[in-house]
User: What shape does this take?
Amino acid sequence: MHPIHLCATLITALYAIPAHAFDSDLNIALLAKAERSNNGDRVLSTGFRVLEPINRTPFAFGLSTALGAANVTTMNANKENFVTLDTSVQFGYFSDIYTYAEVGFDMFELVFSDQRDDGHRSQSRSLSDSDSNDIDAFAGVAVGVKFHQFNIEAYTRYRQINSSHWKAENTHFSGVQVSLSF
Assistant: This one.
């Protein structure tokens, strides 16, 4: 999905939600993000985040989920494309300038058994290689700046991405996220 389409979707969604629908301490944001590895692997996503302040302080817990399209290179130099539903728990300091840490996983892979098979099975693989299909997971940190309802942040993540028949070559991804809060 092209980043311009993601931004247009976010703006359209904001106008469809009545302003009084969120009269609480919860901070709800629609987001679009793009992340890359050092060799050009990428994950483009759009989703939402809900923040719950702790005792009306800038410290908060958050829950984020984003539907995305991933393109990664395997250890065998093949390209794999797949859909993700990254879901994470966040904790941080959220003010005009903010920072947080997060841990998460691919909800699609948890709910559905992983069907990713690139058709490039190697005859030399051991049984233990083909059985190493863990749920894709990630951990990361971010820093951001808030301008009224608009947020922009930079983040870095270590991702564990694999399938029954392949493993991603890169584990370090960095990216930018923009969001609109209400």
